[in-house]
Amino acid sequence: MDTDMNRISDLDIYLTRMQRSILDKMFFIDKVFEPFKYILDFGCANGELIKAMKPMFPDYEYSGYDISREMIEAARQNVPDAKFYDNWDKIDIPFDESLINISSTIHEVYSYGTEKDIDLFWDRVFGSGFRYVTIRDMMFSQAENIPVRKEQLEAIRNSTYAEWLESFESVWGKIKEQRQLVHFLLKYKYTQNWDREVHENYFPVFTEELMKRIPDSYRLVYKDVFTLPYTSWQIRKDFGFELTEHTHIKLILERIK
């Protein structure tokens, strides 16, 4: 998998965006009840989620994993009393007593990884025996993938963001389906790191495909599909229409076998 952090032209902006959703990324903490001792943040970046959770929920032991050594070094400085790893095989916590949190990571694995990387990712998630698996990421439902709402597309073409739409279509092709339009609407504000963002696939799998990946050894404890309120507000402000499709998903899975 490509770990070259140079593809993020402005790392400070990238990390600031991640911090804004910290509270939402803690969604699972009041919805899991069977005892567990460890929380492993998969794709932990600079450790901001762990830093926020530790004083609020001190009874857990926290670890973070990221393939970027640069991020892991930043996390170790940011949260010196937690454990951080860039080598999966060196993680030394009992997975059967752990919750693995996977936030805004699935789409990056698919965007930058090979098929082998993707298979290895899911094997680690579901094959390691974690007590809980929690997921929060961008996700689009196949049931909502209708032909593009032409009035929405036209509103964008007539806006100050038309050039970014043209750039998006040069990578992804002319927009014909609503999934493509919503894909653009989730990234049009991120112009500072545009070259990276425009090539990253926010919707690599449909929601229905994700649900089919859950093995029989896990049961669904919690599911929520939603659109971020800030995103809805920004789209309404910039283009004058309401985004009705769901853009994100939250899942909590509990191991039963």
TrEMBL record:
Coiled-coil zones: none
Alphabetic keyword roster: Methyltransferase, Transferase
Gene3D superfamilies assigned to the protein according to its UniProt record, in alphabetical order: Vaccinia Virus protein VP39 (3.40.50.150)
Originating species: Ruminococcus flavefaciens
Keyword Lyase found: no
GO biological process, one term: methylation
Gene Ontology MF terms in the entry: methyltransferase activity
Every Methyltransferase type domain range: 40-87
Signal peptide segment: none
Top-rank taxon: Bacteria
Protein name stated in the entry: Methyltransferase domain-containing protein
